[in-house]
Write a structure and sequence with these properties.
This protein is an alpha/beta fold and about 200 residues long. It has a single domain, classed as Glutaredoxin. About 45% of the residues lie in helices and about 15% in strands. The chain contains 7 helices and 7 strands. The N and C termini lie far apart (about 80 Å).
Length: about 200
């Protein structure tokens, strides 16, 4: 009887030791290294699958944004069909003037890339004389419409969903249904071309 008890105790200790070793081994094998925290830019890009959400200050899906309604203007006529791109600028706005050569080359590129769009310019210069003087001194200045009342700019901005005091340049993308797809403040550069193309092509 004593011999049987001794054997049983030894078996029990062996099992206990084996179990302890197994747990130690499992602890080593199942150690999980935490994934590195994504950088903020990566997290934002992952969250916003709609390029307009990444690029624009205000955006809406096609056909769901506000209808574009402009205050009274004079000067060149603006596009009324298809995809439209409205650039709000002024002759005294240096960022506006710096980006203008880039903007003017994009419609042809976009059309080649399957994203045709009509680019129109809307000046917010206080007087027609200021605009005429600038155009006389700059032969490459684009044809442009002009708000005939400077007080109309805050009205336009709030209608777009922007702050009434937002600064120019302002870029507005209007979808073929006439709804505002995107409104963005600030100048754009070559690095923004692909994003704009994605918006117009529908990704």
């Amino acid at each position: 009887m004593d011999r049987l008890s001794s054997v049983t105790r030894r078996l029990g200790l062996a099992r206990l030791l084996a179990g302890t070793l197994a747990l130690g081994a499992c602890g080593e094998d199942t150690t999980v290294t935490p994934e590195p925290t994504p950088r903020r830019t990566e997290a934002v890009a992952a969250h916003h699958t709609d390029p307009a959400e990444r690029f624009c200050d205000v955006s809406a899906p096609e056909g769901q944004g506000p209808m574009l309604t402009l205050p009274h203007t004079d000067g060149a006529a603006m596009g009324t069909s298809g995809w439209r791109w409205l650039n709000v600028w002024a002759t005294w706005c240096h960022p506006c003037l710096e980006e203008m050569p880039t903007l003017r080359g994009w419609p042809a590129r976009l059309a080649t890339d399957g994203a045709p769009i009509t680019l129109s310019f809307l000046s917010v210069d206080a007087t027609p004389e200021a605009l005429a003087t600038y155009r006389a001194a700059n032969a490459d200045a684009p044809e442009t419409a002009r708000l005939d009342d400077a007080g109309g700019l805050p009205v336009l901005l709030t209608a777009l969903g922007l702050d009434a005091g937002a600064t120019i340049p302002i870029h507005v993308l209007v979808d073929p249904t006439g709804h505002v797809r995107c409104a963005r403040t600030g100048s754009i550069a070559e690095r923004d071309y692909e994003t704009l193309r994605e918006i117009v092509r529908g990704h």
